[in-house]
Specification:
This protein is low in regular secondary structure. The protein is built from one helix and two strands; from the N terminus they run ββα. The longest helix is centred in the middle third of the chain and has 4 residues, at about 40. It is globular.
Length: about 80
C-alpha cells in the first residue's frame, strides 16, 4: 500500500462548515453531531451535503461562499 503525501490528502468538507464546533478537547464535533462527527463523514466516504442518519436536519453549509475546497468542485473544474 502506497503512503499518500500530505499534499495528496484531501480535507473533509467539515473544515469549512459553519456548523463546526472548534473544541480540540472533544475531537471533531458540530451542531449536527455534538458528540462527534461520524468517521464516514470525516473521511469523506459520506457526503454531508446529503441527509445523514441522526444529523438533526443540519447539513454542511460553507462558512464563506467564496472559499471552496477541492472536494466541492464539480467535474467541470479544470484544477
Amino acid at each position: 500500500m502506497r503512503t499518500k503525501k500530505l499534499s495528496e490528502i484531501e480535507a473533509p468538507i467539515c473544515m469549512n462548515c459553519r456548523h463546526r464546533i472548534n473544541d480540540n478537547r472533544m475531537g471533531f464535533r458540530c451542531m449536527a453531531f455534538p458528540k462527534g462527527i461520524p468517521a464516514k463523514i470525516i473521511s469523506s466516504r459520506a457526503d454531508h451535503r446529503e441527509p445523514y442518519r441522526d444529523d438533526h436536519g443540519i447539513r454542511y453549509e460553507p462558512i464563506d461562499n467564496d472559499f471552496v475546497l477541492p472536494s466541492q468542485l464539480g467535474a467541470e473544474s479544470n484544477l
